[in-house]
Amino acid sequence: MRADPTGITTSAFAGLPAAVGSGGGVIATEREGLGIARIAARRAHAPKVAELLRAQFGLEPPNAPRRVSRGDVAIAGVAPGTWLATRDDASNAFAESLGSLLGDCASVSDQSDAYVILRLTGPKVRETLAKLLPIDIHPRGFLVNDVAQTICGYVGVTLWRLENTAQGDPVFEIWTGRSLAVSLDQAIAHGAAEFGFVRQSA
């Protein structure tokens, strides 16, 4: 008998202050209900995985630390032959559907309950992240849809950049393991305190 997915519903940020400092220099939005799957192509099967994903979603899986998206699906390259794929409002069912699609070509693991993801924006988000990250996130060096696996305040994270808001503010998504959510939130809130930090639900 196959066990049902856990479907964690309690926010990993429950009980933490939703605002620090004064103002809204950095606004963090928790991504909820996101289906997340890690895809690792089996030996010599990366081209077939790419073919199947391209046919199903109209996306070419990146062979570099980049992200591509179409509609509610996104795929990010995180290692050779390895990707993180997401689908909005899909939860645990997304990985199961990918497993059926890719069959013996790849190992697919459901990460929907393993990660927490914050979407960060605001006029001071780049200044805040520059305090916490050991990488260059200048707009000329870290382009829209670039992906990096790095650390943020001593917490291991995956970071990617999205299109700017209509107001011109940069937008990033930052991921870490659910057990490290409090440490990540505290690091960002502390770094943003002088500008004002607000965390909100989706």
What this model shows, in words?
The chain has 202 residues and is an alpha+beta fold. It folds into two domains: 19-32 and 114-200, Gyrase A, domain 2; 35-110, Heterotetrameric sarcosine oxidase (Alpha-Beta Plaits), CATH 3.30.70.1520. 21% of the residues lie in helices and 34% in strands. It contains four helices and twelve strands, in the order βββαβββαββαβββαβ. It has helices at residues 46-57, 93-102, 125-132, 181-192, and strands spanning 19-20, 26-30, 35-41, 67-70, 73-79, 82-87, 106-110, 115-121, 147-152, 155-162, 171-177, 197-200. α3 crosses α4 (181-192). The radius of gyration is 17 Å and the shape is globular. The chain starts with 18 loop residues before the first strand and ends with a strand. Residues 1-6 have low confidence and may be disordered.
Short description:
It is built from 4 helices and 12 strands. The chain has 202 residues and is an alpha+beta fold.
Indicate the topology.
Blueprint: E1 19-20, E2 26-30, E3 35-41, H1 46-57, E4 67-70, E5 73-79, E6 82-87, H2 93-102, E7 106-110, E8 115-121, H3 125-132, E9 147-152, E10 155-162, E11 171-177, H4 181-192, E12 197-200
Parallel strand pairs: 2-12
Antiparallel strand pairs: 1-12, 2-8, 3-6, 3-7, 4-5, 5-6, 8-11, 9-10, 10-11
Helix pairs in contact: 3-4
